[in-house]
Amino acid sequence: MTTIVRGPCPPELEAWLKRRRRLGQDRRDEVWEGRHVVAPDPHSNHGDVQITLGVLLKRAAARLGLQATITFNLGRPDNFRVPDGGLIPWPAGTWHDTAVLVVEILSPDDETFAKLDFYRRHGVSELLVADWRSRTVRCLALQQEPQERDHSDVLGMTTAQIEAEVDWPPVGK
C-alpha cells in the first residue's frame, strides 16, 4: 500500500512520525528527495539473512580496510536510503556519502530496484540483492548503467559462492 500526502505535513501525521522516532520504529524509514518513506520492520527471515551476510561483509572489510555495517544512512538528512548492509569507507559516522558495496534483502513491497540511480549517484560500486524466499543472491555492478553479473568484484566471490555461505532460513518458514 502506498500513501502520498501532498503539501505541508498535517499535525497528526507529524505527531505520528515523532512518536515513531521516539519509539525507535523509524530505523528503516528513508527520505527520498524530501519525501518521508515509512518502512515497517521486515520478516524475521530478513534479519536472519542480514546477520549471515553481515559476517561475510565483516571478513571482506578486514581484507579491504573498510567498515562493514548493517542498516546505515547513505546520503544526507534530506535525501537518504537505508540499505540492509554494506561496506563503507572509514571514518565511522551517522551519515555516509558513499559505499563500496550495499546489500538489500528483498521484502514484500520494498523498492530495492527504485534505489539503483540513487546508489549510482552516490558512487556505490556494487549492489547485492538477497531473496530469502528463492534463496538467491544477485550482484549488480553500478558504476555506469546497472549490470547484473554472476560475481562480486568487491567480495571476490561468485554469487553461487555467496549463496552457499548464507545460512538460509528453512523453506516454507
What's the gist of this structure?
The chain has 173 residues and is α+β, with helices and mostly antiparallel strands.
Features:
single chain; 173 residues; alpha+beta; six-stranded mixed β-sheet; three-stranded mixed β-sheet; 27% strand; globular
Notes on the protein architecture:
By secondary structure, the chain is α+β, with helices and mostly antiparallel strands. The protein is 27% helix and 27% strand. The protein has 4 helices and 13 strands. The protein has helices at residues 11-23, 44-64, 116-121, 159-165; strands at residues 30-32, 35-37, 67-70, 73-76, 79-81, 85-88, 95-96, 101-105, 126-131, 136-141, 147-149, 151-152, 157-158. Strands 3-6-8-9-10-11 form a 6-stranded mixed sheet, with helices on one face. Strands 5-4-7 form a 3-stranded mixed sheet, with no helix packed on it. A two-stranded antiparallel sheet has the order 1-2. The radius of gyration is 16 Å and the shape is globular. The mean pLDDT is 89.
Q: Please indicate the percent range of residues in DSSP E strands (runs of 2 or more).
A: 25-35%
Cα-based radius of gyration, to the nearest Å: 16 Å
Terminus-to-terminus distance: 24 Å
Mean pLDDT: 89
Record the SSE blueprint.
Blueprint: H1 11-23, E1 30-32, E2 35-37, H2 44-64, E3 67-70, E4 73-76, E5 79-81, E6 85-88, E7 95-96, E8 101-105, H3 116-121, E9 126-131, E10 136-141, E11 147-149, E12 151-152, E13 157-158, H4 159-165
Parallel strand pairs: 4-7, 8-9
Antiparallel strand pairs: 1-2, 3-6, 4-5, 6-8, 9-10, 10-11, 12-13
